[in-house]
Write a structure and sequence with these properties.
The complex is a heterodimer of chains A (332) and B (165). With 332 residues, chain A is an alpha/beta fold. Chain A contains 10 helices and 15 strands. In chain A, α1 runs parallel beside α2 and α1 runs parallel beside α9. Chain A is globular and about 60 Å long. The chains are: A alpha/beta (332), B alpha+beta (165).
Chain lengths: 332, 165
C-alpha cells in the first residue's frame, strides 16, 4: 500500500518525501488543477526539481491536471499534459474525458490515473475508463461506504486509491456547483472552490467573526469558536426556522482505524488531502500515516490506532472534529 | 451520523507576560516596523530581486501582535519592504499573539491550522493574504535564511512560553 501526499510547493514536497511518502502529487500554476490558489503550485522549472528530488529518494511524482477545460482553454490543458510528460512525471491524474483521450493518444507510455474529480463511483464506469484510456489507477470519490468500496475492489482490475485524511466537503466531486452559485467560479472549471478574491472575513467587536463568500453571509461564529474553510457547504443557514449546518459540518476525514480493512481489500494507495496547506502540515500528517501503514503492514491483526497519532491529526484538522466520513455510513 | 464524529478541544494560547508587553507598547509602532522590515528584506533578498513580492506594491499590510499591543504596518517600495507610518486604508491585516507568529516563522505550525483555531486572523484582501502565505511557505528551506542568531532567539522565546505553561 502506497502513501500519496500533497505538495503545493517544493518545501512541502521535500517534507512529504523526508517523512515517508511513497509518492507526492502536485499541480501547475493555473486553472488546470483543483487547487488553483494565488502563489501556490509548480512551474516547469521547479516541477523538474521536484521530480529529481522524488526519484533520488525512491519516491514518485504525480501531476494533477484534474479540472474540466472549457472550449476556449483547451490548449492550456493539453499543454499541461505535455509539460508533465516532458518533465518525466510518473503519472498524471486526469478527470476530463477529452483530456484523457488526448493524453492516451499523444503520450501512450504516460501512466494515467482517474482523478476523484472524474467521479467514477461504480465498476462499470471504471471499466469503461480502463478499456478506453488504459487508466492504471482510480481515486475513489469519498461518498462511498466501506462495503461499496469493497464491492468495487472485488469487481475491477484497476488499482484503487482511497482518501485517508484531510478536509472533507459535501463530496460531490467534479459536479459541485455551490461555489459557482456564490462566486461564478467552481473547482471544476476554475480550479478553486471559494477563491480568495471572493472571501471576506470580518471581525466583530464581541470577538466573533463573519464569513462572506461573494457577498453572501455563509457563517457567523462566536468568540473562540473553531472555523473551517469559507465554503457554502460548510456554512450555517436558517432552514425551516432552524439555524445550523444545513449541508456539511467543517470536518476532517480520518480513517486510520480502517487501515487493516483497506489493506485486506487490496487498496493500492492512501491519499492525503491538502495541497493548499504548508510544509508543517504535510510533515505532521505524513509522519503519522507512514508509522500507521508500517505498523499495519507488520501485523494487521494486532493493529491498533495509537492515541498520539490521532492527537497529531486532530491538531491540524479543519473544524473541531474528525470523522470516518461515508466509509461507515449505513444508509447506503 | 453524529456518533461517528470525534470532537477536538480548542487549546489555550500562551500570551506575552504584562511585564514584557508594557515596554513594547512604549516604543512607537513605526520603530518596531523598521526593525521588522530590515529582517524581512534580508530574509526575502532573493525574492525581492526576482520580483516575487511585487504583488505587495502600493498595498498596505499590517501585522498585529495582539498580546504585545503593537502593530507593524508596511508596504513594498522600490527597493524592498518599507515601514508605513501613515494612517490610510489597510489592504491586509494579519493578527495573532507573538507565540503563534513565532511558531509560524519557524515552520512549526501550519497557518491554516492556526486559522481554524482562531489563533491567527486574516482581514481585508484574502487573495493578497493567500499569496503572502504561499510565498512564505513556498520558499525552499535552504534558500530561506532566517539569520542564525534570530532563529536561536525565536526558539528561546518559544521555550520561554512552554516553560511557563
Amino acid at each position: 500500500m502506497e502513501l500519496v501526499c500533497p505538495a503545493g510547493n517544493l518545501p512541502s514536497l521535500k517534507a512529504a518525501i523526508d517523512n515517508g511518502a511513497d509518492a507526492v502529487y502536485v499541480g501547475f500554476k493555473d486553472d488546470t488543477n483543483a487547487r488553483n490558489f494565488a502563489g501556490l503550485n509548480f512551474n516547469e522549472k521547479n516541477v523538474g526539481q521536484g521530480i529529481e528530488y522524488a526519484h533520488s529518494h525512491g519516491a514518485r511524482l504525480f501531476a494533477a491536471i484534474n479540472t474540466f477545460p472549457q472550449p476556449s482553454g483547451w490548449e492550456r490543458w493539453t499543454a499541461a499534459v505535455d509539460s508533465a510528460a516532458e518533465a518525466g512525471v510518473d503519472a498524471v491524474i486526469l478527470a476530463d474525458i477529452g483530456i484523457l483521450d488526448y493524453a492516451a493518444n499523444r503520450w501512450p507510455d504516460l501512466k494515467l490515473h482517474l482523478s476523484v474529480q472524474g467521479s467514477a463511483t461504480n465498476y462499470e464506469a471504471i471499466s469503461f475508463m480502463h478499456r478506453t484510456f488504459g487508466i492504471r489507477r482510480v481515486v475513489i470519490p469519498r461518498v462511498l461506504s466501506a462495503p461499496q468500496v469493497r464491492h468495487l475492489a472485488e469487481h475491477t482490475p484497476v488499482p484503487l486509491e482511497l482518501f485517508g485524511f484531510g478536509s472533507l466537503c459535501v463530496m460531490v466531486e467534479g459536479r459541485c456547483l455551490l461555489s459557482s452559485y456564490a462566486t461564478g467560479r467552481s473547482p471544476n472549471t476554475y480550479g478553486a472552490c471559494s477563491p480568495g478574491s471572493h472571501v471576506e472575513w470580518i471581525d466583530r467587536k464581541d470577538g466573533g467573526m463573519e464569513t462572506r463568500l461573494g457577498g453572501i453571509l455563509v457563517d457567523s461564529c462566536g468568540a473562540g469558536e473553531n472555523v473551517g474553510y469559507p465554503t457554502i457547504c460548510k456554512g450555517r443557514f436558517e432552514v425551516q426556522g432552524k439555524e445550523g449546518y444545513a449541508i456539511e459540518e467543517p470536518t476532517s476525514l480520518n480513517t486510520l482505524e480502517l487501515l487493516p480493512e483497506m489493506m485486506a481489500m487490496g487498496i493500492a494507495a492512501i491519499k492525503i488531502e491538502g495541497r493548499q496547506r504548508s510544509p508543517a502540515y504535510v510533515a505532521q500528517v505524513t509522519r503519522v500515516w507512514r508509522a500507521a501503514i508500517d505498523a499495519c503492514k507488520r501485523n494487521p491483526e494486532s493493529f491498533r490506532v495509537q492515541s498520539v497519532w490521532n492527537a497529531e491529526l486532530d491538531k491540524v484538522a479543519e473544524g473541531a472534529q474528525t470523522t470516518l466520513g461515508a466509509y461507515h455510513r449505513s444508509w447506503q | 451520523m453524529q456518533d461517528t464524529y470525534k470532537t477536538n478541544e480548542a487549546g489555550g494560547n500562551p500570551q506575552i507576560p504584562p511585564f514584557l508587553a508594557a515596554p513594547l507598547k512604549m516604543v512607537p509602532n513605526v520603530v518596531h516596523t523598521q526593525l521588522l522590515v530590515a529582517v524581512l528584506n534580508h530574509v526575502f533578498k532573493q525574492q525581492l530581486r526576482d520580483g516575487d513580492l511585487d504583488f505587495l506594491e502600493s498595498r498596505t499590510a499590517v501585522i498585529r501582535l495582539l498580546d504585545g499591543g503593537v502593530e507593524f504596518r508596511f508596504t513594498k517600495g522600490r527597493k524592498g519592504l518599507v515601514a508605513h507610518s501613515g494612517e490610510g486604508p489597510i489592504d491586509l491585516a494579519i493578527s495573532g499573539d507573538l507565540y503563534d507568529f513565532l511558531q509560524l516563522s519557524l515552520g512549526k505550525e501550519d497557518p491554516d491550522t492556526l486559522f481554524f483555531q482562531r489563533r491567527i486572523r486574516l482581514e481585508g484582501d484574502v487573495e493578497l493574504g493567500l499569496e503572502t502565505k504561499n510565498l512564505i511557505y513556498g520558499l525552499d528551506v535552504e534558500a530561506l535564511s532566517i539569520p542564525g542568531p534570530l532563529r536561536m532567539a525565536f526558539n528561546k522565546a518559544i521555550s520561554f512560553y512552554q516553560d511557563r505553561q
